[in-house]
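Teaching note: in complex prediction, the entire set of molecules is handled at once rather than each chain in isolation. The prompt given to students was simply: 'Predict the structure of this complex.' The entities are:
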Amino acid sequence: MEPILKARGLVKRYGKVTALDHCDFDLMPGEILAVIGDNGAGKSSLIKAVSGAVTPDEGTVTLEGQEVRFSSPIEAREAGIETVYQTLAMSPALSIADNMFMGRELRRPGWRGRYLRQLDRPAMEKFARDKLTELGLMTIQNINQAVETLSGGQRQGVAVARAAAFGSKVIILDEPTAALGVKESRKVLELIQDVKSRGIPIILISHNMPHVFELADRIHVHRLGKRLCVIDPKDYTMSDAVAFMTGAKEAPQAA
Amino acid sequence: MSQTDQYEAVASGSKSEIASFEDTRKGFVGRFHHALHTTPALVPLIVLVAAIIIFGLLLGSKFFSPFALTLILQQVQIVGIVAAAQSLVILTAGIDLSVGAIAVISSVVMGQFTFRYGLPVEISIACGLAFGTAIGALNGWLVAAMKLPPFIVTLGMWQIVLASNFLYSANETIRSQDIAANAPLLQLLGAKFKIGGAVFTVGVIFMLCLVLILAYVLRHTAWGRHVYAVGDDPEAAELSGVNVKGTLISVYAIAGLICAFAGWALIGRIGSVSPTSGQLLNIESITAVVIGGISLFGGRGSILGTFFGALIVGVFTLGLRLLGADAQWTFLLIGALIIAAVAVDQWIRKVAA
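The expected output is the structure of the full assembly:
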């Protein structure tokens, strides 16, 4: 089977620091691929390279068999790759609805949209409310409240809801449950399963081994800027995975 | 995994309605704070209304007349227009020190193209407007593409444009009588008309329309939301799909265009085309923006606030002059207002107050 998203020989250097060292990456259609690795292993750089946030110095990225070169996250998004960044990428002073539709606002039908370019606030608010309800984010009282008035977990929920609502080919989640409470984490995990059942593959970056082993079809172990190995969570234990990524144990050769 | 599922399963029986709480800060201060947080233009509006009432009580009908109140509008029209441009730039967390210089050189271009090259006045005005827009766009390109700090870019541009203005115009003033005789269109924004005792100029109407249009655009269009998002956190805006570079360049270019209109209004106001006019517009526009409650850190505030800020300055200036006070008292009070405005801004930002 041909990978939907493939990277070969990615190199990214920041000055003298090498973040990606001839790194390969494969995402198969319809799967959940977890990416695990120590802090500083280059997970975020890898994700940024395939989502357009950074341009790799060397190497190629292929989406559905076509080589792509994203020079901005906007291009990646237009190609159907939606990312939830660790920093969440939200404007604190703007409302939840404004944030969810940032960069792809809906305009009112008819002359008010065409000539006055007026935003369709009611539709945007309804959509945002529906998506948050789907995610079980009932503790958000007002869809028009500024994002800065939300708790960390609520902000994360909004960011995940945004990606799930708009991602068409690949969804990348960078530490989606890091700031969430038990109930919200469970909702996000359910949402990930739900997105997968719609046939959209997901890249999940996480330090939370129980979540990784519960969800992932395959686990990409990242170490020192490259892919160390890819393991099947059914064949290995969490301790094995941690041992591989920290270098405490030799990685299996056939992956 | 069964163990983890159990503790999580408990949560599935939880309530599913949208949370609501009793508002514990029912007090006046709490509600007032909330209102200010959602409507930042409220503070300058309150100050404005209070200032009008106080001067009205002190001066009676001398101040509280349609003539005097519309005189304020005439006196603030230029600053009001320039401050609208300044607001756009400051909302993106930038600053534009070249606004006054752009206004003046645009007016000089309009005048000199008509009188030196004999171009039709309509074309000269279009050239002046295009010239202002081009300088603004250059500012925006330097800020967005070259990643230079807006303060430095516009400080440099201020000097460059002002010097070019004197070199190009040879420091010559085009006299009011000549303009009135040959190219009255240049003075269009100064044309007066009366409604009862109130005196309006086309420039005043232009300022009012400009403020209303910008208020609409900033609130109800995607571009307006992008301006706020870029000022709030440019990296987040970029990652969530906003064309940050394009937004910044367009903001500076539109600011340049608005300044060029201010240059046109300047000809109407003073009658002549003078390369030495409008020297204080930078500081006066920034003052109006700050008193109007727009945060210098970007992303917060409204254009209506700026308009009220400009009016506050106008009310103080006229009111104190009618009271016979030394003009320095005006500056002193404006200075105090600036500091007070920023203090109030900090208080409003405290979400958890």
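Point out the following to students. Chain B touches chain A at residues 1, 4, 7-8, 11-12, 14-21, 216, 220-223, 225-226, 228-229, 232-233, 235-243, 299-300, 351 (CB under 8 Å). The beta strands of chain B are 192-195, 198-201.
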